Amino acid sequence: MVNTILIMAGVLMALGILLALFRFILGPDVTDRAIAFDVMTVSSISVIALIAYFAGRVIYLDVALVYGLLSFLSVVVIGRYIERGL
Amino acid sequence: MSILLAIFLGLVILVLAGTAIYHKNTKVAIIAAGAVGLFASVLYILLAAPDVALTEASIGSGLSTIIFFYVLNKIRQTND
Amino acid sequence: MTQYFSLEFITMLTGFLLIIVGIWGMISQKNLIKIVIGFSLFDTGLNIVIVSLSHIKNSTAPIIDKAVDVSQAASKIADPVPQALVLTSIVIGLGVTALMLAYVLRLYREKKSLDINSYTDLKW
Amino acid sequence: MEIRETVGAAVTLLGSVFIFLGGLGIVRMPDLFNRIQAGTKASTLGTILSLLGLAIMNEAWIWKLLVIIFFVLITNPISSNVISRAAHFRGTRMTNKTVADLLSDKNKKISEE
Predict the structure, then answer these.
(1) Among B25, C52, C53, D52, which residue has the fewest nearby CB atoms (within 10 Å)?
(2) Does C105 touch chain B (CB under 8 A)?
(3) C-alpha distance from residue B46 to each of A60, C7, C101 (Å)
(4) What percent of chain C has pLDDT over 90?
(5) Is residue C1 part of a domain?
């Protein structure tokens, strides 16, 4: 019961990543791609947490912690580069 | 179940690598290379290597993109 | 048939295809920054191949805590040696990428061009 | 015991639905600023709900999951703010249905009053 619901959640997260990838390929400008990259990063945090639940190891959550801390840095650098210069 | 997730991540990685090679805009290619590092990190977690995944998430996806954009900024300043 | 449908084989295939894409980008693109991006993809693919060698079926991470007991750790965990090697390799790959980008910057300041066909000083 | 795990799994499923809706919004919306709106807000709420569901299911992991939720809640609006500011100063075209643009020069006096 619980495993079935969590597998359905994982499938929905994978579909979200797939739609963001679609916008990444299709998007007309650099900023669209940056936003798609951001959505893919935030969705990956949830996928990592699900993998950590199915594996039963608490140590996998550290990777999600590093994602949450450092993922915004590259997006900030992209935005500052587009705006006027680093 | 993890095999299907590995197939999905592999397809996403290959599509992003093709985008990184063949797109004309250099900035889009750099962001696509960063996204390849991101999904490679999820693949490392599936392969039971969380330490490698930690390093890849911080270096391959974060710091590498920052270095590429730093060099692009230096090139743009040289033109002025 | 069933050995082709395992996690190790699929990730190894992904790594080799990524290596092919990276080499093709290095030898076919004309932009200098695109060549460095192709090298970066090549590096990532090589690391995926080496890590996929360390995974045995249903193995878990080689870190001992409450979930993995010490007495039966040797039969449950993955091989930690390729992971340590890849951990070094990622950092060295970042260093090599930074060095190549420094060369790109110096070349651009010499000739104001990013095209590989305009650097023909060593041809005769 | 069983009820608590089922409730946690249902919260995780709700969060994944929000992540899917964020991806759908980023494909379907007409211009860049609507895409930022849909993508960032929906995916942030979805991630927070799915991590909260895992925290309900497994009470030994609750502090680490709360720290991750805190970091996502802080860092995700910063990145979307920087991207939307850069896109606005770069002169990205908006869709025809846009009502108010408080950052442009024509409306600056209205926003200061």
Answers:
(1) B25
(2) yes
(3) 10, 9, 32
(4) 48
(5) no
* Token pair recorded at residue D15: 């969060």
Q: What is the domain range of residue B75?
A: 2-79
Q: State the complex-level ipTM.
A: 0.89
Structural domain of C18:
7-56+78-117
> What tens digit of pLDDT does each residue of A17-48 get?
999 999 999 878 888 898 899 899 989 999 99
The reply to whether C21 falls in a domain is yes
Q: Quick check: C51 contacting B, CB < 8 Å? A: yes
Domain count, chain C: 1
Find chain C residues with C-beta within 8 A of A58's C-beta.
Answer: 65, 67
φ, ψ at C115 (rounded to 5°): -80, 135
Determine whether the interchain pair A32/D16 forms a contact, defined as Cβ–Cβ distance below 8 Å: no
Query: Nearest 5°: CA angle at B63, between A65 and A20?
Result: 65
| Contact predicate D21/A52, CB 8 Å | no
Tell how far CA C64 is from the center of its chain: 27
The count of domains in chain B is: 1
The beta-carbon neighbor of B65 closest among A10, A21, A77 is: A77
Q: Would you put residue A27 in left (φ > 0), alpha (ψ -120 to 50) or beta? A: beta
Of D17, D36, D43, the CB nearest to A43: D43
Residue C14 is assigned to a structural domain of this protein: yes
Q: What is the pLDDT of residues C64-111, one digit of tens each?
A: 887 777 887 778 888 889 889 999 999 999 999 999 999 999 999 988
Give the CATH architecture of domain A2-83: Orthogonal Bundle (1.10)
